Amino acid sequence: MAGHVELFNLTKIYDPGRNKVAVVREFNLDMAEGEFVSLIGHSGCGKSTVLTMVAGLNDVTDGAIVVAKREINGPGPDRGVVFQSPSLLPWMTAFDNVMLGVQRVFPHATSAERTDIVSYYLSIVGLGSSMMKRPKELSEGMQQRVGIARAFALAPKMLLLDEPFGKLDSLTRMELQDVLIALLEQNRVTTLMVTHDVDEALLLSDRIVMMTNGPEARVGETLVMPFARPRVRVDVLAHKSYYELRGCMLGFLADQDKRHHRPDETKEAVPQVTVPDLA
Fold this sequence. Notes:
The longest helix is centred in the middle third of the chain and has 17 residues, at 170-186. By secondary structure, this protein is α/β, with parallel strands linked by helices. A seven-stranded mixed beta sheet has the order 6-7-8-3-9-10-11, sandwiched between helices. Helix 5 (170-186) links the parallel strand 7 and strand 8 (190-194). Residues 265-271 and 273-279 have low confidence and may be disordered. The chain has a domain at 76-246: Rossmann fold (3-Layer(aba) Sandwich), CATH 3.40.50.300. The chain is built from eight helices and eleven strands.
């Protein structure tokens, strides 16, 4: 399966001096092709550590990551990454920032074909009239649109989102969530997102994986979303299960606060919770 992803016993140990710290230990996650999974948990629990290991930007201490039947051991164009800050090259236009990756991923395409790819994705994210502007001429929201276009233009097998809308105001955040929903309806890319926003996770995800507190963080509970696709914000908010799911997430996070000084209690069996579709 082109977009099937498996994280098997994923472990990350840092060694500051003599004190080894296991940030994440035996983290397991199986993602179906086209599935959208969100990781949520308290700050410092290892969410971004998991994501950067999958991106190939952080060495794996133990375990394995398999993307589209291939075990990965470094970064690659099969995984598109959108970080909280888009990290655009300031001397290049939005068009050139996206084209940089497209040229590497599609070396045998014609110049016209590559131009069409870049123009298409910049237009889809709402930058059709701003693609020749440099980053300093763009707002933070517009810069993040460039980052999203850049990731999708590479035709990745997996999309990795690390708090992609965390720095944006609420209105811009909602606009870009809708842009992402539209893109994923057209391109059913297997997606892993790190977020602190429970409502964002509910809106976008097929499953939400809640992580225990670190050190030695792992999967705590998993929620399966009953919301239909294509996702419509007003329908999700009006769904009878919405606040029950929201309460489950907030309850889990509150429980992790209580267990902060009792880490052994997080090593119990991992439940998966499916809230029935009451609509």
